[in-house]
Amino acid sequence: MKKATFKIRRKIILAFLFSVLSVLIFAGFSFQVHWEIGNRLRLLELTNDLFQNLLELRRYEKNFFLYRQPASLQEAKNYAARVADLYRSHEPEIQRFKKEPKTPEFHRTLEDYQSVLLKIESRINQGGLGADPKDLLPFEESLRNQGQELLNLAEGWEKEERRQIDRLFQ
Q: Taking the model in full, what pTM does it have?
């Protein structure tokens, strides 16, 4: 009779150990998935912030070309600096989670965009506010193309992050 009790005790202990081990393994996987989702959501928030700041930048750019107000040009420069700071402060995080981050392309385009803004500002300061709009036409075209490229890159990042998060939930 003692042998039967010992076998039952062994079976109960083994079942308990198996249950604890299963719970620990499940908790480990859950923690890893939770950590990954948290990182992806932070990166999605970052790409969304970049995209929203770029939209504001483009809005002030267009306001400047429509109304020729120096305040709009200054706001565009401020938003460009904000985007550059936001990008620079989170660049390692962006590169860590992106398969093809295209960060050199984004950084180069943003620098080109900022330099065109400075050229426009110096042209206005040289010729006064009533400078001929035809003088700014080449800058306008360049600025609009670069701004659209920046928006496309940021929008692509945001869409990619949404796909990654959706994939984690499936």
A: 0.81
